[in-house]
Amino acid sequence: MTFVPIQIHDYVKKHLKRNPGTRAAELTEQLLSALDDYKAGHRCSNCGAPIWVIGASQVGRMCFTCITGEADPSSDYEIAEACDKLKAPLSRKAR
Question: What is each CA distance from 56 to 25, 34, 48, 64, in whole angstroms?
């Protein structure tokens, strides 16, 4: 499972070009919150896989496959700090 790594500020710029009604500060806050969840070890609420930070920032704690229905993310972006899904932390406690 290999994503295309991207920094948050670069992703926000790309997202705003395609979605001009989006507020940059709000999107950044959502991404940072999902990244914090990832770093805390929260997993997909459906299957238990590591969350996809970009997707989870919009639809909740879910993985790439559960959000998109696809198995191969090789042409999809993920926040660079969350690209190594094989070493994703496990949740320390359930919330």
Answer: 17, 6, 13, 9
Report yes or no: 86 and 2 within 8 Å, Cβ to Cβ. Answer: no
Which position has the token pair 């395609």?
A: 18
Residue 11 DSSP SS3: helix
pLDDT of residue 85: 81
pTM higher than 0.85? yes
**CB neighbour burial string for 66-90, b if at least 16 within 10 angstroms, e if fewer:** bbeeeeebeebbbbbebbebeebee
